[in-house]
Structure formats: structure tokens, C-alpha cells
Amino acid sequence: MPDTTPQNNLPFPTCDGLAKIGFFSDFSQEVLEKIAPLVKTLSLPAGSTLFHYGEPHQDVIQIICSGVVRQIWPDGKARERYIGEVLGISSYLDNRPHGSTIIAQENCEFLLLPAEELRRLEATSSSVSDAMDRSIAEHIHHCIATAMEVAPFLNLSVTQVMKAPIISLGPDATLREAYQLMRHQRIGSLVIMDKGESDGEENAGNSQGKPIGLLTCLELHEAIWDKGLSGEDKVISAGYQPPHEIPATASLRQAEHLQERKGIKYLIVTKKGSPIGILSQTDILRAIAKVSPPLLAEIKRTEDIASLHQLYLRIPRFAADIRPWNRSATATISVLNEAHQAILQHCVTLTLAEIVEQGGGAPPGLFALVLLGSGGRSEMLLTPDQDNAIILADEVEKDPAALQWFAKFTDTLNKTMAKVGYRLCPGEIMARNPSWQKGLSTWRRQFNHIIAYPNPKAARWANIALDLRHLYGDEELVIALRREIAEKLREKPRLLRMMVEDDAEGRPPLGFFNRLITTTANGKKHRIDLKRNALRIVADVARVYAWREGIDAHDTVGRLQGLVQQGVLSYEVVKTTLAAYDALLDLYMDQKLRQALESAHDDDHHDDKLLDHDLLSPHEQELLRISLRTVKRLQKRLQQDFEIG
Q1: What whole-number distance in Å separates Cα of residue 28 and Cα of residue 25?
Q2: Residues 6 or more apart from 19 whose CB is under 8 A from it?
Q3: pLDDT (tens digit, 9 = 90+) per residue, 169-181?
Q4: Cα(172)–Cα(175) distance, integer angstroms
Q5: Are strands 189-193 and 211-216 parallel, antiparallel or unpaired?
Q6: Which pLDDT tens digit goes with each residue over 431-463?
Q7: Whole-prediction pTM
Q8: 3-class secondary-structure state, position 599
Q9: Which is nearest to 556 in space by CA: 415, 377, 388, 406?
Q10: I want to staple 392 with a disulfide (CB 3.0 to 4.6 A). Which of 1, 272, 396, 571 is the partner?
Q11: Which parts of 399-520 fold into alpha helices (H)?
Q12: What are the two backbone dihedrals, phi and then psi, of residue 192, each rounded to the nearest 5 degrees?
């Protein structure tokens, strides 16, 4: 084993030197002055090992200053790591032995940063915390990318969606030629090829040569209007984007992760090193949009409950069909919820038709059915329970006959939804329950009361009720109620604090030194309640912050993105959180989808809601730990903001 004793033979560490390295680039001068004397340097010749799989963590993280290393996992998976990347993050987070081996591919230089000091600075400096968030998010993305190579349902390649051939121009072409070519081809981007390989419209589509940049409509607009360039200036003088390539064998999901990680919209697809097409975020969105309409149209044509039940049984297969399009887990859930919502809405339509056929007549007034909980957030998974309520127009609540009609309607509706496949809520959080069936003014009074006089029971109720979203009927009733709630919470936010206290009863399954904690359930060992102790925590955090800040978004992702826009949470915190949230959703969905497909059309199948840790690969286990640690950090941030001990 090579000598890895820190050697101070590099021109580091100085504050100016550290500031030029990506990890330290946003550190304040004060932090740099504190950390520079503690940083050590290390040189390794090609072929040397930085650390081996299973070796104890040396309480340092390593940052690559020069050279390339290869990271190898016990199952033989490997990838290259480059300048600026941080090594040893997983072990840093939980003090576990190293989960992989790092070998220098060429002569390499590293900075060694003491973990104990880094943890202390994380707690006191936002710039250090943001730097760790960036590295953690990058690590999560890399873990996902490695796991994706062996994941099921991920066999659709980028070549099936990309635009081909590539439309390109040479660097000496003019901005006017670029504009005319974009307009003629009706495209939003052009590839700038190395000189001589493609020059002008006559060579549009030539994919020979090496891409040196990507010119989009936005850069073209900025070049002329902001930089004052003329149409006769060369495209090379515009602010083009550096090219980002992806091999033709990659999946759409891998492409999307690369786009997200690099913060880019376009990828150049290559085969044997030569560009053959271009892939945009819009191309991926269009691809996924093609998957859902056939099922949605079939749902609307269904004429009876039995047929609708058969469509419900196809939900797992539908979800499996979505995944080959390789969108993120949150995007998959979004499309899945389109199907759930369409089925639930059709349940209402069929129920109303049944009542009319039986002589009950049409609704005797305005009403709005709303989804609560995961349905209200558009985050229903494969087999959600019913969580719903009904808002009645005030005049309906004053009419006993109208109330009787709606009592029969909601009871029939909830039973219809159960026949289709949506189980009755064990806690009776359903429209047929008088507690969840009220006029608009009564709903307003109830919310106003619990906001003015909150208690722990009300806080738990609010964690469900504040995720209300329109399903069917008069949407203005829902809008009016949400507006009233937002105004009252801004005046009296104490309920939100109690909701944070309720959320604190669920914690990520991490113990001392962030070691993973599993449980035994139904005689099965190594189980994790990922929904309650991870996914729900992220949703709870997003909900509380969003209502406090008046962000009118229903879903967790939209709420977190809104918090960035309003400056409540930093971009780095939200980026890391969303990466972890998507990774956890993906791990959970993968197992649940496997189970559902294995028990297809089995109405008596027991729905195991826990994650089986033993079924995860080494990469997935590492991904689980680091993602849970991110959730733990987010929950702690929320509790600190609301001064919860």
C-alpha cells in the first residue's frame, strides 16, 4: 500500500489558492483563513490507491487537485473522478468504512480536509454548508447514474427521442445565417462545428467534425440586443454554450440527470465519438407526454365501475411503461397522478349518473370535491387510500333536503372509489364523514379557529387538511377557502410551529454517526418506513414553509422551488433536497412496482409499505444513506427556523 501521509510539497494551502478550487470558491475570506492552515496536501503516482473498500474512514475528505482517479465498487462497477470532485463524502456523513476503492489513473494531487473541522464549519457558515450540499447532490446524482445501469424498465435510449441529423454551422458563419437556419429548420439551437466541417445551410445536418459549442435562440438574442453584435458578426463571437455530450447507448433518464447536474437544456448525442443527434429537455417532456394519453382517453370512455376497476388494476403496468421513458421519479409520479386523478374524476361522473338513473336528480347546489394528503399534493403512489372532503355552497348547508342528497352522494361515491380500488381511509378522512362535509363558511370558521387556537391534535389534522386540491365541481369554492387560510396563517402562524412539532415525531432512520437503523415488521428484518420517516418529512417541510411564505403551490417540488425564488431556502439546499427526494422516491417505487407487478390482478395482495434494505444493491444502499442524511439536515433546518428543540 502506498504511503498516503500528507505531503506539503504543493503550492497549497493558501487562501487565494483554495478560492480557485470549485469546492472552496464561494467560501468567505474569513472561512478560508480559518481552514487554510488545516488543509494538508497529498501526491500519489499513477497506479497508487488512495483508500481501499472496507478501510476505516480517516476523518478526512479528499479533493482532487490534478489528475484522474477511478472509483471501483465491490460489485465491479466503476467510474472516473476528475479535478474538483470531492471523495469520501459517504464515509464523512456516517463514519462508516469506505464503500469503494480509489485508484490514481495518473499522477494525482489531493487536498485533505479534516472532517471534524468541516462539520463544525458546516454548522456555522452558510457558504460551507452550501458547498457540502453541492457535493452531496453531485454524489447522489452519480450514485443514481451508477445504479441506473442495472435498474429494470430503463431500456429506452436517447437515440429514440433525439433530433437527427444535427443541424450545424461552422464558427465563421454569421449570426444572420444562424438566425435564418434556425427559422428555416424551426429549431431552437444549432451546433457550432470545428472549422471546415460544416459551414452554412448547405451543410446543415453534417455531423462530422468536433462540436465546439451550442448556439441557442437565447444566446442569439443576447448577442444582438445585449452585446450589440450585428448580423454579420461570426457565431463564434456570440455567447455560445460549451457542448455536453452523451453516448447513444445512454437512457433518457441518464440524460435528464446529466442535464440537471450540469444545469443545461441540450445534449449532443454521440456514437463512437461522432455527434449523431441533439437531445433537449423539451424532447424528453414530449416523449413522456406520449405515454399517458391512451390510458387517460380509455378512462374517460369507461361506462361502468367494473371496467374502471380493471383500468385501476393496470396502474402498476402503466407505471412500468412510464419508467422506460427514463424520466425522474418525481416526473413519473406526476404522470401517474394524472391517471389516478382521471380515474377518481370518472368515479364522480359515474356516481352522479347512477344517482340520476335511480331518480335522485342532479346536485341541488354547488359543491367542490377536494383531494387531501398525497392526493392533494399530486403525489399518490401505486395504491393510495382515499383522503378526500367536500366543500358545499353556503345555501346548500342551510337546506336539509340538499344536505341529505349530498350525504347519499358522498357515501355512494366513497363506496364507488373503494370498488374501483381506492381503499376506504381507516381514519374516515372521506367526504361521507360529516366532519369532512361542510359548507364553505363552516370550513372557514373551522380553519380560523384552529389557526387562532392551535393544539397538537389540530396540528396533525392540518398536516392533512392543508394539502387540499380541487378534484371535481366548482373550483372557486376551493380557491376561496385556500385564500382565507393563507390570510389567517400570515396573521397567526403559531399553527405552523405546532405542525413542525408534529413532524418532529417522525425522524429519518439514522442513529449515532448517521448509521442506518432498520426494523423488524411482520417477522421480516431490515425494513425501513421510508414514506413516514423520509418522504413525508420532505413533504411536511415544504408544506409548512410554503404556507408561511404564501406560496400557492400544491406539490412538494413546486413548493421547494418557490422557496428558492423567494429566498427562503438557498438554491444549493433545495437542489440537494430534490436530488435526495427523487432518489428516495425512486428506491421506494422500484421495490413497490416489482411487488405490484408480481401480484397483478391479485385483489387479496397485502401491500407492504416498508422498504426492504436487503434488496438494495451496494450503490443503492449508499444512495439511501446519503439521501436520508440530506432529509435529516432539512428537518433540522426547519426545526431551527421555528425554534423547535
Answers
A1: 9
A2: 25, 27, 32
A3: 888 889 889 889 8
A4: 9
A5: antiparallel
A6: 999 999 999 999 999 999 999 999 999 999 999
A7: 0.76
A8: coil
A9: 377
A10: 396
A11: 400-420, 440-452, 456-465, 475-491, 494-503
A12: -90, 115
